[in-house]
Structures are given as C-alpha cells and as structure tokens.
Amino acid sequence: MITLAQILRDHQTSLQLRYGGRMRPEHHAAIRSILACHTPDCGEVRYQCAPCQQRQQAYPSCGHRSCPACQHGTNRQWLERQRQKLLPVDYFLVTFTLPVQLRGFAWHHLRWTCHTLFQVARETLNQFARNDQRLGNQLGLVGVLHTHSRRLAFHPHVHIVIPGGGLTGSRWQRRAGKYLFNGRALARVFRAKFLDRMRKQGFALPDAIPQDWIAQCEQVGRGDHALTYLARYLYRGVLREPNIVAYDGEQVTFRYRDSQTQCWQTLTEPADRFLWRVLQHVLPKGLRRVREYGFLHSGARKTLHRLQLLLRVTLPSMATVSQPRKQRACPCCGQPMSLTVWRQPCRWPVIRRRWPA
C-alpha cells in the first residue's frame, strides 16, 4: 500500500520549496510527526514471552491527529461515546458553509473563523428553536468542523447533528417528520450573524459577498449513520491511505467520491501539490474539531440521563463500551507477552529565557 509518509520522504524538499511560504507551524509539526511515525524517532517498545522466551520489537506511533498511520481506535472510541447519548428520536443534520469569497479570509484567520463558525451556528439554531412553539427551547447539538471538500480543496464548513426535539424546563417536546428548519432561512440568519461578527472584530469585508449562502437541513434517521460519517474525519487526516491508488515517484493519483453522482472519481497531480492538498487541512494546535452544546454537552450529563430515563432508553453497560486493550500474543505459543522495555523518544529541552526589563 502506498503511504503518505513514503511520498513525504521523496518530496519533502520540493514541498518546502513550493509551499514553504504558506506553511504554518502546525504544518511543519505534522510533517515531522508523520515521518517519525512507527520509526525509532518515536521510541522503542520490546516484548518478551515468559514461557518460550520469544522477543519482539516495535516502534510506537506518533499520535498526531492528522497522521493516517495511527489512532485507529480513537474514531471508534468517540463514536461509541456518542452512541451512549443517542435518543430514540429522528435526527437532523444541519450544514453551514462559507462562500468562496470568504475562503481566503478563512485561511488567513483560521482559528478565529473556525471558532466563529461554531458560535454562529449554535446561536442561529438556538434562535430558531426559541421561535418554534412546537420545539423545546434547549437543543442538543454535536458540531464537527470540516475544512475539506471531496476533492480535498479548502472548503470550511460545520456539520451539526441535532436530535429531533428539545427541552423546555423538564418537559421534552419531540419533533417528528422530515422537517426541522428551513434551510434558506437558516442561511440568511447565519450570514447576517457571521458578517456582523466580522465587522465587530474590525475585519474588512471582501467585495461581492453573495446574498445567498448555503445551509442544508435534512433528516438522517436515528443518528447513527450521520455520526459514523462525521467520525470518519475526526482523526487520521482527511485522506485514507487506501484511497491513494497510484504513485510513480512524480505523480500521485487518489480517488474520491463525487458528491453529486456518489461515484468514485480519480485525480492525478504532481506529488508536491498532492502533499499540500492534504497538509493544508491540518488544524492549529489546540483548535477543537468537535464541540457539543445543550443537553449533549459533557457538563449536562445529569440532564441527558434524566432525558434518557424519560424516553426509556436502554443503555449498554460500560463493560461493553470500554473494552480493555488486548495483550500482544506470542507468535510461537500464543501466550500473552510482557512489556520489558519502553524507550521514549529523545526530545530537545525547551529553553525559556527571561529577558531583562
């Protein structure tokens, strides 16, 4: 299988020469982590089997959230935690997208833009909920930030998964059917709030900002399918390595699913351009890709638990949710192997100087 690290090793120099001026510290950190993943630069782990004295050596993963070679279980753990919060109601998926004219601004002010996307989306949905007498005042929201399109172009947008109902005090008001909010009305309010935030922050508005923005609101069944889709891009980057279908040393071909036809398409381009297409979606350090609001917030567990009791939700036991990690088995006798050596990677100490006043 063609790996991203393999392409990086071959074309790191040309990538730096062509796109070094656009790179931020998080891009350089991602490159270092991906190249070090599962190599001695990430440390060393040794195992030994007591019955047959068989020994094994392995190199740990880097743990970077944009590395496609590690964190295989992190998406699954997040998805299992979200499944613990599922309610027996219809779910809706709302998507708010920035227009093309604001994507250059979003790239240069990525941290502010991502934070504002979440805040404005939450305010817009809560405003619509308060104005709807058939829906409770307090919604439960799970928001996931995406910065990529299917072709991995820079395309910032936020997905919000919403249970079909809301809380008014201690009373649950359920919304049935395929309709939650009007997408065009959501887009108008979202546009006004986002541009107002830009003005208050002192940013100059670009010319020719369109009047009609895009906001989609659709029913997605019981919610598990939408959460599974969103969990796919939380960790391990925006491209799965099996989707890299060809690499001849200079050109890279990867496949993607077209959003209109739902058919697989391929794109071939120079390796350095492909690497930048992938690495441009690395988020700044500390920027959270997932945020929860309302009764789905981690601080509202008691409210969610009362709601699950009210709706007679049968929760799986914690033993079935958090399973212990399997021990490494000996390839000779099949017995569990013991960890004997764990060498952490050497890191240069950070020298902090206090300059004289």
TrEMBL record:
InterPro entries: Transposase_32, Zn_Tnp. One of its GO terms (molecular function) is transposase activity. Residues 7-98 form the Transposase zinc-binding domain. It comes from the Bacteria. Residues 140-299 form the Transposase IS801/IS1294 domain. One of its GO terms (biological process) is DNA transposition. This is Transposase zinc-binding domain-containing protein. It holds the Pfam family Y2_Tnp.
